[in-house]
Each structure stands twice: as structure tokens, then as C-alpha cells.
Amino acid sequence: MAQAQQNGSTSRLAAIFGALWLAATLVVLVHGFRWALFISPKDAEQGNIGRAFYYHVPHSMLSLLFPYINLIASIAYLYLKRSKPAQALIADAWALASAEITVVYATICLITGSLWGRAAWGIWWAWDARMTSMLLLWLLYVAYLMVRRLSSTGQTPTVAAVLSVFAGIDVPIVYMSIRWWRTQHPSPVFFGGSDAGLDPSMAPAFYWNILAWFMWGVFLLGTRFALERRRQAIEQREIQLALSVALDDENSRFPSRPHLPEAGNAF
Amino acid sequence: MRFDGWNTIEGRHLVFIYAAVILIQGGYFVWVAVQWLKLRAMSPDVETKKSTRPV
Question: What is the ipTM of this complex?
């Protein structure tokens, strides 16, 4: 009873914190939008299509950050699944949530990049090192989510965790691709040597937007994690109910045999 | 900002880019919210709250 009350107050606190975080995120998103479209000057070479930078680049950068949460959570799951199954389930929920956020951000990166490329270069796509490695990352995480959704064996989280380790290897390749191979994609703006850098007039719009989309990503991650934990709790309860019914049935059919123990709570 | 206009590829694609971001992020948020409401209906917490409500 005390545990239930504690859980209730913790989830209430989490809900209040989540609502405050969402409110702050929306304010920063609107501010970033205003900077990107109305305050920041037009790009000298590209004109207004240069404003795509403020949404494309933050999403691209963040789509290389969330896979690390997925990688760490997946390794934690593989490490804990036998010794501490309850903690492994928490790691698995983080892994699933971060994989979905990665797909969302990487999808936006690919779509906005393609739209920008068509307007700036005249082509929708090029089999350039950065674009191809990013597409591969997206495909790996889509495969990860499909494995999780379509496979129904008990080993699904383990298979997905191993897949996530492979996907994690692609992340540094995506990051380094425009440094190792100079092809269609522009050279890096950040940490790209003496020629790299952001014009001071573009900096506020960029920093507001990367902060905004980071906060939004964290909000989605937390919400998706909480959703997955709830689903796990329901699934656990259903398994317990099914086990109890089966055990009661077994004990009533063979009353002379020593009774089987009740189903325990592994959650 | 002076909008380039729908008739130029730059103006059109800028609108598409911002629309794509809002639609994909918003669509995912709505999906999560719908799943949340669906699960809430069958959550153990709901039962606990009902059963502990004073008569």
C-alpha cells in the first residue's frame, strides 16, 4: 500500500515535471522558429532556402546523439538480463524509446536534406558518403524497430540489442564521412578546421533551434520511456494472471500432489 | 523575412521543409499520446485508484 502511494506520488511528480518541461520546450521552439524565419538574415549565396539550415542541421546532429542512448541502454540490457531482469527491462525501455526518436530525427534529416538539395543543387539525392551512411543508419534503426514489433520470441530484446550495437558502429562513420571523403555534401560547419564555422549573424537562430529540438527530443524520449514502462507493467500483470490461473488449475486437478508455488513478481 | 513566394523552388521547398518537420514531429507526438491513452485505460493504476476510492 505504502509502495503504491509512493509510486503514485512519484508518477504525479514526473507528470508535473513533464508538463513544465513541455511548456518550456514549446516556448523555446517558437522562439527558435521566429529567429530562423524572421530575425536571422537571408543567406548571401542561397537566399531564403538557406534557412533550412536551422532545422536540418539540429535534426542531423541530434540523430547522431540519440543512437548513443540506444547503444548504452542495449549494452546495459545485455549485461543485466540474467543477473537483474527488472533493471534490464528498464534499460530495454530506454533502448526502444531512443531508437524511435532516432528514426524520427533521422527521417527528418533525410527528407529536409533532400528537399534542400533539390533547391540548392538541383538534385534530390546523390550516393554521397554522408547521405549513404545516414540512409544506412536510418535503415538499421527501422530494422531494429521492425524486429521489435514483428518478432514474438522471448529473445526479441536480445536480438534487437545486438542489432543496436551494429547500428552504433555506423554513427561515427556518418559523423566522419564528410571529413574522410569530400563528395557532394558540404564540408563540416563545426569542428571542420580553419575554413569551418558559423557566421555570427546565424549563430542565435542555430543555437536556439538546436536547444529547442534537443529539449523536444528529451521530452519525447521521457514520454516514450514512460509509455513503454506502462506497457511492460501491463504485460507483466497479464503473464502473472495467466500463470496464477494455470497453477490454480494444476493444483485443483492434482490435489494430492504438493502444491506448486504462486507466480512471483519479476517486474 | 521577405518570402520568396510559392512560385520559386526555394520558397516552395522552404515551406515543405518546415512543414515536414512539424508534420513528422507532431505526428509522432500524437501517436505516442494515443498509445498512452489506450494503455491508460487498461493500466493497473486505474484499478488501484478505483478500488481504494472511499465510499
Answer: 0.85
Instruction: Say what the alpha-carbon torsion angle B3, B9, B15, B20 is, to the nearest 10 degrees.
Output: -160
Choose the closest CB to B17 out of A38, A46, A116: A116
pTM for the full predicted model:
0.86
H-only helix segments in chain B: 9-41, 44-52
Q: Is A34 on the interface with B (CB under 8 A)?
A: no
List of chain A residues whose C-beta atoms are within 8 Å of the C-beta of residue B39 = 227, 230-231, 234
- Contact status of A216 with chain B (Cβ, < 8 Å): yes
Beta bridge partners of A47: A43
Q: A94 to each of A68, A88, A89, A228, how far by Cα in Å?
A: 11, 10, 9, 8
Residue B35 forms part of a structural domain? yes
The boundaries of the domain holding residue B21 are 1-43
Instruction: Calculate the dihedral angle through the C-alpha atoms of A261, A239, A237, A159, rounding to the nearest 10 degrees.
Output: 120
B31 in A contact zone (CB under 8 Å): no
Residue of B nearest to A237 (CA): B44
Q: Do B13 and A115 touch (CB under 8 A)?
A: yes
pLDDT digits (tens, 9 = 90+) for A25-65: 999 999 999 999 899 888 888 888 889 999 999 999 999 99
Is residue B53 in a domain? no
Q: How far is B39 from chain A (nearest CA, A)?
A: 7
Interchain CB distance below 8 Å, B36 and A115: no
Domains of chain A plus CATH, in order, are 12-230 (1.20.120)
Tell me, yes or no, whether B49 lies in a domain: no
How many whole angstroms separate alpha carbon A142 and alpha carbon A150? 12
Chain B neighbors of A107, CB-CB under 8 A: 24
Q: What is the pLDDT of residues A51-104, one digit of tens each?
A: 999 999 999 999 999 999 999 999 999 999 899 989 999 999 999 999 999 999
Number of domains in chain B: 1
